[in-house]
Amino acid sequence: MERRQAAYQQMLKDNPGIKELESIGAVSSDVQGDTANKVGAVLAKYPKGKIDAIWGTWDAFSQGAYKALKENGRTEIKLYSIDISNQDLQLMREAGSPWRVSVAVDPKLIGATNVRLIANKIAGEPTPATYDFKAAAIPQALLAAQPGAVNVASLGKIIPGWGQTEDFIAPWFATLEAKNK
């Protein structure tokens, strides 16, 4: 979350036309509900036309914001987020959804890459101290254009490169795989 917040602050600095009215959100036992209540209070303070968008640095925050926007009839406010889940995809595809875009990395890919890094580390191979995954934008319009159900597992069919990277695949992985078939 800290890195996301730092990137957000840099984006604000680089785009002086964007003004942050409020900053809310805290991890709790009911993130969605607590966020919905906080966003509802913010919506009551600002009449229509005063808020252009809500940015969620985590999809649980965005789910709460979505709930508040729907419950308060404020779907003119666009919602943008980081992370993706099957629930998020369903909410983005609902009729009249304010959720425009989410940017995410395939969670399965994160796990696979972490396992590769651990295997390399155990084998004494050099590994980086940090690694930046290439995130993909998942636009509402693209989701809405899909004829059937969309879930995280099927995003690879509509988002180029989703769930794919060859990073940290060592040549000896093939030998290891062949021995364990």
TrEMBL record:
Q: Where in the cell is it found?
A: Periplasm
Recorded hits in Pfam families, A to Z, give: Peripla_BP_4
Q: Which organism is it from?
A: Citrobacter koseri (Citrobacter diversus)
Which example biological process does GO assign this protein?
transmembrane transport
Can you name a GO cellular component term?
outer membrane-bounded periplasmic space
> Under what name is this protein listed?
ABC-type sugar transport system, periplasmic component
Task: Please give the Gene Ontology molecular function terms for this protein.
Answer: carbohydrate binding
Query: What residues does the Periplasmic binding protein domain cover?
Result: 3-125
Entry keywords, A to Z? Sugar transport, Transport
For this protein, the record's PANTHER family field holds: ABC TRANSPORTER PERIPLASMIC-BINDING PROTEIN YPHF (PTHR30036:SF7), D-XYLOSE-BINDING PERIPLASMIC PROTEIN (PTHR30036)
Q: Does the keyword Transport apply?
A: yes
Per the annotation, which location comes first and is thus the protein's main one?
Answer: periplasm
Q: Which family does it belong to?
A: Belongs to the bacterial solute-binding protein 2 family.
